[in-house]
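RECORD TYPE: inverse folding
INPUT: structure tokens
STRUCTURE:
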């Protein structure tokens, strides 16, 4: 059963996407370009810094560290990198499986 599932490109896409996303959303891996907005009294300052996807689901930081931070978000470059890693790489793997299946079926 697993051998037939591993030949299915859609299964490979979802499995690899899931396996790649787990560490990115659980561990604080600061890999994606973003901005942090810090509130100092009445003044607000923006700092460009690498962010982790785990910050967006509430993991990887302490509440004490976030007292002066008003907001944080990814920049377009960070969104693009997240898209490439979370969806692009699994799509390439699935396409590779599709081509291998097509070649194998053609040879038979």
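DESIGNED SEQUENCE:
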């Amino acid at each position: 059963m697993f051998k037939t599932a591993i030949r299915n490109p859609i299964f490979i896409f979802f499995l690899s996407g899931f396996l790649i996303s787990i560490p990115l959303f659980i561990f604080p891996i600061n890999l994606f370009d973003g901005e942090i907005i810090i509130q100092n009294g009445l003044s607000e300052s923006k700092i460009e810094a690498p962010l982790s996807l785990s910050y967006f689901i509430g993991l990887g930081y302490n509440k004490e560290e976030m007292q002066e931070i008003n907001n944080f978000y990814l920049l377009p470059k960070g969104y693009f990198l997240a898209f490439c890693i979370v969806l692009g790489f699994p799509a390439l793997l699935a396409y590779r499986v599709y081509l291998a299946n097509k070649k194998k079926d053609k040879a038979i």
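NOTES: Residues 10-99 form one domain.
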